[in-house]
Design a protein that fits this description.
By secondary structure, the chain is α/β, with parallel strands linked by helices. The protein folds into two domains: 6-110, Translation factors (Elongation Factor Tu (Ef-tu), domain 3), CATH 2.40.30.10; 121-235, Rossmann fold, CATH 3.40.50. It is built from seven helices and eleven strands. It has helices spanning 6-16, 90-97, 131-143, 160-165, 181-188, 192-198, 209-221, and strands at 21-32, 35-42, 53-58, 64-73, 78-84, 103-110, 121-126, 147-154, 170-173, 202-208, 229-235. The strands form two sheets. The protein has a six-stranded antiparallel β-barrel. A five-stranded parallel beta sheet has the order 9-8-7-10-11, sandwiched between helices. It binds flavin-adenine dinucleotide. Flavin-adenine dinucleotide is lined by residues 54, 65-68, 81-84, 86, 88-92, 111, 128-129, 132, 232, 234-242. Flavin-adenine dinucleotide (FAD) is lined by residues 54, 65-68, 81-84, 86, 88-92, 111, 128-129, 132, 232, 234-242.
């Protein structure tokens, strides 16, 4: 429920209180002008967060928003979230204002996307909102001696985040009017030998709903099995808080 009356939001927080995680902002780093990496420190001794873990914050009196953990260090009690500050809603505004020392509470749950530990090849497609997810997937792939590859639709000023996080995948320019079109052209330019290797990968599609549905359709047309494709729409044009 992304938006509820204040009295209901208060009640939900009170009822869920025993299950809510408490943490404090211990670091904030701008990876670009609109990508803010926030480190939370808390007591996570009883947690075993896995890649793809989703967290939900109350971002104002009436709104809740979902985000994805970008990393987790149980021993140090640290986790990170990479927020895209698109400036269009209360979630983005709340993340913009988060400062070191601020206390937060959040609910954690397993997301729709799960890393395929049996697969050796992992292909990422998404946008700014999915960089955090793919950062943890990249770390997991390297730890498992798996290979990863992929393409993101980004506003070019945010591509620097891929270098900073050492996520070795490509990007194309995001196009609001033509979701997934530039990424599909990028796929079409792929050398056939390269496609031979990657066509049996696990494909993870996260971010804009329209881009995901078009890219998924394209993959199916290319002969990728539906069972190889894992999707999670993180936002949809004109919709608030998925
Ligand atoms: C499971 C899940 C995990 C997510 N993980 C992350 C994450 O790790 N990092 C992250 O930054 N976001 C993440 N998101 C996306 C984030 O929750 C949305 O962007 C959300 O809309 C932000 O809330 P808001 O209040 O700022 O905007 P809203 O009030 O929800 O939306 C206001 C307007 O902004 C538009 N909008 C929303 N997102 C975008 C966007 N990316 N680009 C352009 N316009 C947009 C909406 O279409 C709407 O018109 C995740 C979402 C889900 C469902």
């Amino acid at each position: 429920m992304p938006q509820v009356p204040k009295w209901l939001a208060d009640t939900m927080i009170a009822v869920a209180s025993p299950w809510l995680r408490q943490a404090v902002v211990s670091d904030t780093t701008m990876l670009s002008d609109e990508l803010k990496l926030i480190t939370f420190k808390g007591d996570f001794d009883d947690e075993d967060f896995l890649p793809g873990k989703i967290v939900q914050f109350r971002v104002d009196d009436t709104s809740f928003r979902h985000y994805t953990l970008s990393s987790f260090n149980k021993q140090q009690g640290l986790c990170t979230v990479l927020f895209y500050l698109h400036g269009k809603g209360p979630g983005s505004q709340w993340a913009t204002n988060l400062q070191i020392g601020q206390e937060v509470r959040f609910r954690a749950g397993q997301g729709k996307l799960k890393y395929n530990e049996q697969g050796k090849h992992h292909f990422f497609f998404g946008d700014e909102t999915a960089i955090g997810l793919f950062n943890w997937y990249k770390t997991t792939a390297l730890a498992c001696s798996h290979e990863y590859f992929g393409v993101l639709e980004l506003h070019p000023q945010h591509a620097v985040a891929l270098n900073t996080l050492k996520i070795m995948i490509d990007y194309v320019h995001a196009s609001p009017e033509a979701p997934a079109v530039n990424a599909i052209s990028w796929m079409e330019d792929m050398h056939p030998d390269c496609w031979n290797t990657w066509q049996r990968a696990t494909f993870y599609l996260a971010g804009r709903a329209l881009s995901i549905s078009r890219f998924r359709k394209y993959l199916l047309q290319k002969g990728v099995e539906a069972s190889q494709i894992r999707t999670d729409a993180y936002w949809a044009d004109g919709k608030r808080g998925l």
